Model the fold of this input.
Amino acid sequence: MSGFNKVVSTYEQAMAGLQDDMTIIAGGFGICGVQQGLIEQIKKSGVKGLTIASNNCGLEGYGLGILLENQQIKKMISSYVGENALFEKQLMDGVLEVELTPQGTLAEKMRAGGAGIPAFYTATGYGTVIAEGKETREFDGRHYVLEEALQGDFALVRAWKADTFGNLMYHRTQRNFNPMAATAGKITVVEVDEIVAPGDLDPDEIHTPGVYVDRVIQTTHEKRIEFRTVRESQA
Amino acid sequence: MALTRQQIAKRVSQELKDGYYVNLGIGIPTLVVDYVPDDMAVMFQSENGLMGMGPFPTEAELDPDLINAGKQTVTCVTGASIFSSAESFAMIRGGHIDLTVLGAFEVDVMGNIASWMIPGKLIKGMGGAMDLVAGARNIIVTLTHADKHGNSKLLQSCSLPLTGVGCVKKVVTDLAYLEIADGRFYLRERAPGVSVEEILEKTAGEVVVAGDVPEMDL
Done:
């Protein structure tokens, strides 16, 4: 009777089955809500030729940036390259294939991929290079671009709490792309701060139902801050 | 005198209304937060999934899981909400955000905007800007009127890759406030002490000057 127990105890188990040339959908915005333990395991595994859909590509030495440094990534599908000089350099040099995708379109591509919707129309990017080569259509006098859904062999998710059944809650803006990523992987792996017993999370407060989740691992990594901005506390 | 970044933000703040949900881009738009009139309640959206962004945290409040779209640590105001990126862009794409303020490299008389790429020089990516300009009902673009060599950024036709087409209706620069309609810029206000002649000289796109152009009330 452990059919719903998704908990694994090692990062090797968490990323078991990952192979060269696979596609990964990863949650995270900047380095908030990124899956550091799972990413370090990917680095350790040495798999190559990965296609990764993630809003950003981490920083040098942190997040997906470490896979960039290790040249394990063939293609990134992202909205923002800034803040990672190596990303920008590999893109400018043509070493790395990059499909720049508007942020909302990227989120919706993941959502659609997980929801069984093969493509959708959006006004975003109409009349720009993003729309080149894509089907467009007019609805009610406005122009829209047909964008195709994204699915991954693996999805990487960072959450706050999970129960052993894989029901998830996120903390603050750690949520970002993680709920959509969770739905869009053939194998969805979640790294969490805390694992609790089924029933400890109120069903009304679950952000991602465990039905989407295959593996859960308790993190051993500290969170980092990209831009630490603070104000003086009032005396 | 040309406006400072803060003065541009202050002029933009005059477009705020009580009860507005607002998205501010990176750069000058971010400064608008400091000029919300005291008698007005405004909620700021951060497109990574926060409505009701508050000031920077104190050391005690610092939370790596609470950041804005510029990746800076922030706080939530009372009444804030947190949501996914898909929901965030549903708000934007669905036209639920009352005002969007963003920076740009160029704008033109057709309301086109270029803000995300300079071929061969700079590729940062568009982030959420393409979604914002496609979805917002009310967009204000802030930029300096001309570059440091005096080349106008208010053009007849944008030269850089576009972020969006036909979407900009209001522009606040360091020299003027202009509106865009019928394929022209309409000069509505000038920065204090800046002449209409100087503005015309630094505007490459067609400009209409109707009657006296008042100075901004800052």
